[in-house]
Design brief:
alpha+beta; 18 helices; Gyrase A, domain 2; single chain; four-stranded antiparallel β-sheet; about 45% helix; DNA polymerase, domain 1
Length: about 425
């Protein structure tokens, strides 16, 4: 038997061979991932040294082909790789994860939202994972839901009568109060904040009376009515509705386990992370500005990558994650999230000509002239404008030659 045909006998033998023949030739991440997969393949089917050599050769070849050449126009490649598939995107708003109650912006409008670095997304949504005590029980998940979901007087009142002379009468819906976990004392405390007058409670009939301290102006009655409607009794500010979903969640050991996850309409990352029963390490919001403010710029970069990849994958578009990572890096390298546009990345280029070529040509040139700015001609756009070789590809090489004088020639001879 040829020595290459013999099977690999043990796991240690496989790891040792990989360390010798693969480790120094690819990145550490690819090496670790390949090793894990090859161990699983060997355990299931077995491998010979010949088969392993073929696999290693293929991995190294693919790795080398995936590397970026020095001087490659990575920005242009990324723009093309994301821009072309984006033309195939739909403009609709889809239901979130098959849930009829929530709409979430997807497709091209969502992609534009992300790269424009909007302060607030059109449809803010949060995914809230629960801690060990609450995530396997629907009843316990409902307890956390009640703590988070905003409950107002409007949610639990059958009717609200505002009389300009007599005062306010609020008839409460006891079944809704029970469902939301609200007591009459909670309602009493919430209404006290408005300071409209003396509050009397009929607990048996579930009616709250407010007697005016001072009789209000007739023109303000509707405004007072709206104020009472919107009084927040409990819940996290900004979270309008929360639903419970049962999901198969991937575990660290590679298996999946069913657990309860909360999906919230609205966003308030900082306050939701403080709610008892919530696993603060797994809370996610699609509001990237909020992620930046609460968790920092690295978290915002990761959120941009995740959100853009989700949009593309939802549309069935296959874009290499490295292009998306370059966009996220460009938006966040300065320490804050900046839009890809004239008020962000494009508008802060050091080149006068590049800014003028992007938008508002006359204005940018006039501003530069007034300020006496100089253009270093270091980028692509400005060199195209003046007809010089661009600093990419073969144009990145600078060749210097020292001319030898006749005297030096003679000395050498």
């Amino acid at each position: 038997m040829n020595s290459k045909d013999r099977p690999i006998e043990s796991k240690d033998e496989l790891i040792s061979y990989l360390e010798k023949n693969l480790k120094g030739f690819v990145s550490e991440a690819i090496y670790n991932d390949t090793m894990d997969q090859l161990i699983k393949t060997w355990e299931r089917y077995g491998l010979t040294y010949e088969e392993l050599d073929e696999i290693i050769k293929e991995i190294i070849d693919r790795y080398k082909k995936s590397l970026v050449e020095p001087g490659e126009a990575v920005g242009t490649v990324a723009a093309q790789s994301i821009g072309e598939p984006s033309t195939q995107m739909t403009l609709r708003t889809f239901h979130y994860a098959g849930v009829r109650e929530f709409n979430v912006t997807l497709g091209l409008p969502r992609l534009i939202e992300i790269v424009d670095a909007r302060k607030k997304p059109g449809t803010p949504i949060m995914e809230i994972y629960l801690d060990e005590e609450h995530k396997y029980s629907e009843e316990k998940a409902r307890e956390v839901q009640r703590r988070i979901e905003t409950t107002t007087i409007e949610n639990i009142a059958k009717r609200i009568d505002v009389d300009p002379l007599m005062g306010v009468t609020i008839e409460l819906d006891k079944s809704m109060m029970e469902d939301k976990g609200v007591s009459i004392e909670d309602v009493h405390k919430a209404l006290e904040k408005l300071k409209l007058g003396d509050i009397d409670v009929d607990e048996y009939n579930g009616i709250v009376y407010i007697q005016w301290k001072t009789i209000p102006d007739y023109t303000k009655i509707e405004r007072i009515r709206r104020k009472i409607f919107n009084v927040r009794i409990k819940g996290v500010k900004g979270i309008n509705k929360v639903i419970i979903q049962k999901r198969a969640v991937p575990q660290p050991d590679g298996t999946e386990k069913e657990e309860y996850v909360l999906i919230a309409e609205g966003s308030n990352l900082l306050d939701v992370m403080k709610v008892p029963g919530v696993d603060y390490r797994k809370v996610f919001t699609n509001n990237i500005k909020e992620v930046e403010e609460v968790l920092g710029i690295e978290a915002a970069r990761t959120a941009i990558i995740r959100e853009i990849m989700n949009v593309l994958e939802d549309q069935g578009l296959d874009v290499d994650i490295r292009h998306v990572m370059l966009v996220a890096d460009t938006m966040t390298w300065s320490g804050t999230v900046k839009q890809v546009g004239r008020h962000g990345v494009a508008g802060e280029k050091p080149s006068v000509l590049a800014k003028a070529a992007f938008e508002m040509t006359v204005q940018k040139l006039a501003e530069a002239a007034i300020a006496g700015e100089m253009d270093p001609l270091a980028g692509v756009t400005e060199n195209v404008i003046i007809g010089q070789p661009i600093p990419l590809g073969t144009g990145i090489v600078e060749l210097y030659m020292r001319l030898v004088s006749e005297e030096e020639k003679g000395e050498k001879e």
